[in-house]
Design a protein that fits this description.
Length: 192
């Protein structure tokens, strides 16, 4: 349930290796983010939820409470960066490389993470506090991971109750999907 640039692709890739069906950014994601802003949860969103085991990237971190109500036995992973400033620099670089998107304005209240760094940082910190507070009294529902500090297979597999830790290295966001599919295939074969 971490925000963009916190390792969401990394956690998605790790969950794929473990055999989960992960919903990632897609054409629907932009539309779903707009529906989130309208406080709507559409049948298309429900269909996406029903067809996947895990979620990464927009709009899913924004919908963690709704996902918890829809799937009461679900577990949640909050990915974070080693400090808010590192996260902000990553978001600034990301948005500079890619075009500005209306979703950034709807989520952060600004298109510009440089001029309005305080808005972006404020949202990041409020989101993380909100997720922690929501799950505070429910041990075993939330795992917080920071890949920069070394979190990886032991933490994730322990949290998910996976007894056989993959022997492949913990993924990193820039691995190609072909690599992840191959790692997943090898891990699934070992389990048989």
């Amino acid at each position: 349930m971490g925000l963009q640039k916190t390792g969401t692709k990394t956690i998605g890739d790790a969950l794929r290796v473990l055999g989960h069906r992960v919903a990632s950014w897609s054409g629907d994601s932009a539309n779903f983010t707009l529906r989130w802003h309208e406080k709507a949860f559409t049948p298309e969103m429900a269909k996406t939820v029903a067809g996947h085991d895990a979620f990464e990237d927009w709009p899913w971190p924004l919908l963690f409470e709704k996902l918890d109500h829809l799937e009461p036995n679900a577990r949640f992973v909050l990915t974070i960066r080693k400090d808010p400033e590192t996260w902000l620099r990553s978001v600034q670089a990301h948005i500079a490389r890619h075009s500005r998107w209306v979703g950034h304005y709807l989520i952060y209240g600004s298109y510009d993470p440089v001029a309005d760094a305080d808005k972006f940082l404020g949202f990041y910190e409020r989101h993380n506090r909100s997720v922690r507070a929501y799950f505070r009294d429910r041990p075993g529902k939330l795992l917080e991971m920071c890949f920069e500090t070394g979190d990886g297979w032991p933490e994730l597999c322990g949290f998910l109750g996976v007894s056989q830790t993959p022997t492949v290295p913990f993924p990193h966001a820039n691995k190609t999907i072909v690599d992840i599919e191959e790692q997943s295939r090898r891990y699934q074969q070992r389990l048989k």
